[in-house]
UniProtKB/TrEMBL annotation:
Region (Disordered): 1-24
Bias-annotated ranges (Low complexity): 1-21
Protein name, per record: DUF2845 domain-containing protein
Classification via InterPro entries: DUF2845
Amino acid sequence: MPRPASASSRCSRSATNNAAAGGPSWRTTMHRLAILLLCIAFAAPALALRCGTGVVSEGDSTFELLQTCGEPTLTEHTERQVSYRIYDRVHGRYTTAYDTVPVEIWTYNFGPRRFIQRITIEDGRIKRIERGGYGY
């Protein structure tokens, strides 16, 4: 009576048969997977700005932005109104109040081969990163 093949010999035979049939070998598949994982690990987040070897993203401080990317090409100062509800005890109801929040927009121009980046800053933190057209 023939002995059943062990699990390891079955795996190696199927990998050999797969490679012989023209498909990728187990090693080739693992090599491709390792490269893909490395690319994902070193990719910048979707809402991030790469400056040289550093990366800043939403939520980072202006200090980190200055350390990583340097001074911006253009700085704009504006403000936006924020509404919130407060309870009016005299009249016994809620009312809407408004407050102004200072907003800075920093623009980075990295030259004609890269996109212009506009960073919106509120309360000393990066709120939004927007990509414009090519720089000049």
